[in-house]
Write a structure and sequence with these properties.
Length: 501
């Protein structure tokens, strides 16, 4: 049978049939002409009783050889030669894949690349350029935060002899110190209390004032308004969080959903063709994650907050790489949110030197009286100098401005401007994405693994091997040719959509 076949001698594309009957049905459906020919010698050509121009209409030949168990042979027409007006010589080249595809035994081979059943599982880098990635979608998560003032002594009583012991606890962890707590929006009250404490000379009772950035459930804090004889009003004393509330207090869940993103190939969500960036808005500190390693194209995270004089927070992926919580892929941010404290130099001087100054002045006065009585002008001068020195020291202390301490970079930026994180999905730009899609559509993905190169039944499948390992009960030359076909790379199609990507 001469027919018009879509197959070509370069063997870049071939058709895989389920059985021999399907193969025969397909070739019979092609434009064809039957001729009676009783003997085909293995000489690479046949002579047919057809006009040269009639044979020129066809490019393929199928015949059955009764001497080889009635086997069907499939051949490319390499050339045709005019013999006479009624006779034409046809030069043949066996189509080894069609002729022997049901005789091939596939064995484990090194498969360099192929189409796979689930492309998002293929994370091997390819020789396709990603270009500069662009932001496809993003979201900003803002934190509320809370102000904590850590004290080393009671700030509700000026006289520490009347001090009350306060503890600050977070679950099972307890700190023996007084902690004042001010919510976001109470900045004016915080400033007023700190200023009063400084002016009253007890600023040194404050270790630090910090802004803890990742506290949204402030109502879980146990806060008691306690009267202070220093400020003349109540101050918010925080005793911490109950043990049964601690987990929900310091942890919160967020989700970044990119499942609505339409991509021809999910491999476009693998590295280096895409990435998810989680970035702290204040410091710019960030981590990069691979989108395809999140389940169902949804990135979920748990934000864990550390409450201390040096607060920090951690963003932990919770459905990444098949793990519950992927701590090794977390963003850990140490927040430099210690606020400046003003200490009143003059008030502190008076409090620290009150008894000493009184003794100096009292002693100086006694000395002056004794010296005058004894007629010692020098004694009077020395006593006068002692009182004068105390007064001069007080005047110098009074002229000293309030001193700022414990200031840190980033505190005001985080409080006023950028307290939170940004999550971004970065993918290829349109031009690079189109190029990558075309390449993957035609040539699949790198797999570089030891497996059978047998077609898996996809509508089409590009397969490329290194050292194709197949056997079969047919001539070695044809076997080697089929091996070379796979080593070079071949696309195997189903017959109903041949070469239709």
């Amino acid at each position: 049978m001469l027919c018009k076949s879509p197959l070509t001698q370069d063997n870049e594309h071939q058709i895989k049939f389920n059985n021999k009957e399907d193969q025969q049905t397909y070739f019979n459906s092609l434009t064809n002409i039957y001729i009676n020919y009783n003997y085909v010698r293995n000489e690479g050509f046949i002579t047919v009783p057809l006009n040269y121009y009639e044979v020129l209409k066809y490019n393929y030949l199928v015949f059955q050889n009764t001497y080889v168990n009635n086997k069907w042979f499939f051949c490319f027409i390499q050339d045709i030669v005019y013999v006479n007006d009624r006779t034409t010589k046809i030069i043949l080249k066996t189509d080894v894949f069609q002729t022997y595809q049901f005789d091939i035994s596939y064995h484990a081979s090194f498969v360099e690349r192929r189409h796979v059943m689930t492309d998002n599982l293929n994370s091997m880098s390819d020789n396709v350029s990603s270009g500069n990635l662009i932001v496809s979608r993003e979201t900003i998560i803002n934190f509320t935060g809370v102000y904590l003032v850590f004290c080393n002594a009671d700030v509700t009583h000026l006289d520490l002899a009347n001090a009350t012991i306060h503890n600050f606890s977070m679950g099972n962890y307890q700190v023996p110190c007084m902690v004042l707590c001010y919510k976001t929006g109470q900045e004016n009250l915080l400033n007023a209390d700190l200023q009063t404490l400084s002016n009253m000379g007890v600023g040194d009772r404050i270790n630090s004032c910090v802004f803890v950035p990742c506290i949204d459930n402030v109502e879980m804090f146990n806060i008691n308004e306690i009267a202070s004889d220093i400020t003349g009003q109540t101050v918010p004393v925080c005793s911490g969080v109950d043990n049964n509330n601690i987990d929900s207090f310091i942890k919160s869940a967020i989700e970044f959903d990119f499942s609505s993103l339409t991509l021809t190939h999910l491999k476009a969500l693998t590295s280096p063709y895409a990435k998810i960036i989680v970035q702290d808005l204040t410091t710019g500190q960030q981590i990069e994650l691979e989108p395809n390693k999140f389940t169902n194209s949804k990135a979920t995270f748990e934000i864990q907050t550390s409450i201390s004089e040096t607060p920090s927070y951690r963003v932990v992926p919770t459905n990444y790489q098949g793990q519950g919580k992927s701590y090794g892929d977390s963003l850990v941010v140490k927040c430099n949110t210690t606020l400046p404290l003003a200490n009143n130099t003059y008030a502190k001087y008076l409090m620290n030197n009150q008894d000493t100054n009184n003794l100096k002045m009292l002693g100086g006065a006694v000395g002056m009286i004794g010296s005058v009585a004894s007629g010692s002008a020098m004694g009077a001068y020395s006593s006068f100098e002692s009182i004068t020195n105390v007064m001069l020291q007080e005047q110098q202390a009074q002229r000293q401005p309030n001193q700022l301490s414990s200031i840190s970079d980033g505190a005001m930026e985080r409080i006023l401007l950028q307290n939170g994180i940004k999550i971004m999905l970065m993918i290829m730009d349109v031009d690079h994405l189109n190029t990558a899609n075309s390449y993957w559509t035609m040539y699949g993905y790198p797999v570089k693994t030891l497996e059978s190169p047998s077609p898996k039944g996809l509508d089409y499948e590009f397969i490329k091997t290194v050292g194709c390992n197949i056997t079969g009960n047919f001539p070695q030359d044809e076997l080697i040719e089929i091996q070379n076909l796979f080593n070079k790379g071949v696309t195997i199609w189903k017959s109903n959509n041949f070469r239709q990507y």
